[in-house]
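Researcher: Batch entry, complex prediction.
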Amino acid sequence: MNPATNRARLFRPLDFLVMALVVALALLLFLLPHIGAGEPTCLVVSVDGVETPYSLAGEYSFTVTSRGYTLTVRVADGSAAVIASDCEEEVCLHTPAISRTGEVILCTKSRVMLRIAGGGEGYDAVTG
Amino acid sequence: MPLQADRVRARRLATDALALSLALVLSYLESLVPLSFILPGLKLGLANVAVMFVFYQVGRVDAAAVSLLRVTVVALLFGSASSFLFALGGAVLSYLALLALSLLGRRIGRVGLSVGAAAAHVTGQILAAILLWGTPGLLGYLPWLLLGSLPLGTLCGILLIFCEARLTPWRK
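Model: Structure tokens for the complex:
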């Protein structure tokens, strides 16, 4: 408490250190997946842990159904995005298109995850 | 005097019960302001204000009990087994962060504590989800959730300051 104003101080010096550490950790987690990740090679669609690779070349759409939910994925210009979903949360719809190795789009309701795989991950045969 | 000891125990129990009730109501109010469409798992975190209030005004063991009971009751009333596990992961890591940061004493304020606890909470939730679903790709959401914990943790810390200023004279 500050006796002069009889009001509690909102901030103390170490508060800003904690905030800076949180920001630093966030930045580190942003950068780490891209270090040594290699060029993007394919889109990997994971449904309940079962992975299916898709090509990032060309333009095409496909649907994924899991746990009663259907997602429509559009691949174009080397990127992938969810363009339609009947999931009420719509997290996947609001996630921007992914194109860089390590980027993901996740639908928590359907347990569907889209991930850009990079060089060295060993996906030989791709769909699409 | 035995009567005084009984009064202290009764006051402690009443404060814990009040904080738990408040945490449950705040958890319900949080669900009316959905932020999950921005990021999965993003919440206002208002219920944590009640837990932190108990941590500093009653005791650490009481805060752990209130936190654990809140997570359990919310899961029973509004959630599912998986939501219970996510919330439990967040609550455990958040409590450990509170314990660690509280060792800094008066050098850290309620806002710093709240931000640290909020960051630990989202980290615990993501780790629990990764363990449950086996999808390490969920880590891609963590940096965004950590950035989200800054304003939301600050808000909760400021709310805690105001609550302590107004409620602690009443408790005396």
